[in-house]
Automatic annotation (TrEMBL):
It comes from the Bacteria. PANTHER family: ZINC PHOSPHODIESTERASE ELAC PROTEIN 1 (PTHR46018). InterPro entries: AtsA-like_MBL-fold (IPR044094), Metallo-B-lactamas (IPR001279), RibonucZ/Hydroxyglut_hydro (IPR036866). This is Metallo-beta-lactamase domain-containing protein. One of its GO terms (molecular function) is 3'-tRNA processing endoribonuclease activity. Residues 1-26 form the signal peptide. It comes from Halochromatium salexigens. CDD domains: arylsulfatase_AtsA-like_MBL-fold (cd07719).
Amino acid sequence: MRTLKRWQLATGLLLVASLGAGSSIAASTCEAPVAVQVLGSGGPEAQQERASAGYLLWLEGKARVLVDLGGGSFARYGASSARFADLDLIALTHLHADHATDLPALLKSGYFSPRSRALPIAGPTGGGDYPDLESYLQGLLAAQTGAFGYLAGYLDGSDGLVRLERHTLEADSQEPIPVLETDDYRVSAIGVTHGPVPALAYRIDVGDQRIVFSGDLNGDDPWFVDFARDADLLIMDHAVPEQAGAIAARLHALPSEIAEIAKTAGVKHLVLSHLMRRSERALDDSLARIRAVYPGALSVASDLDCFGLEPRGR
């Protein structure tokens, strides 16, 4: 009996400790008029402090654009205090699990939102083993056959759900593709090379401020440099070290390539995200390589970080 009581006491203490540790992921709202918040700074591995890829654009205290929503990012989305009703766009760079898995969870949460307007969602064309955006959404949401068919109302706006306004974007495009334009900002996309995976990068122009999300790319696309030119903030995926093998380098940009892209594009602030254990182990080496080439501001993302932007000229 004493052993049992000691075990119960120890378990209770562990529970309290774990709850206390969990408080490090606290509610966090970006307060700058224009800001990007990192929901997930990790990749496809299970990492204690990093959810998979996800980002929010905040304008005047409202989360307006969601870029990717990989595993764990939905919980960070909740911690961010973002509201489903405020979103103007969901932009998926590609359909790997670490960039799109939490989409059904977000859509389920929308059932409890007062939102009444359609929700635009953008994603790539398909190829090889990868469906296009429309096929992906049908596989998730189609009545009878979809994995989450009870959410089929998102396809046509029925059952009290808002309609997903689908935009399938050409992943082979080397020219910017207009995605969304509002009174406050413009969103465009461009195709990037991520091995055999159809993939997109996104750019958001808010007045004279420019934000670019690379998504996963291997650094072989000169048109991406033009796409990112003069960016105030470039969120660049850093998944591999300089010594990466051929397969990994076919999928992801090396640190030296990241540095050249940021330097050539004249990026003002480079943020490294999508870190994996292999890139974290070599992070000091990678940062040294990047700083040797790229003269601008350099940051390493953590979950729920906010990066505020100031209008140019201030």
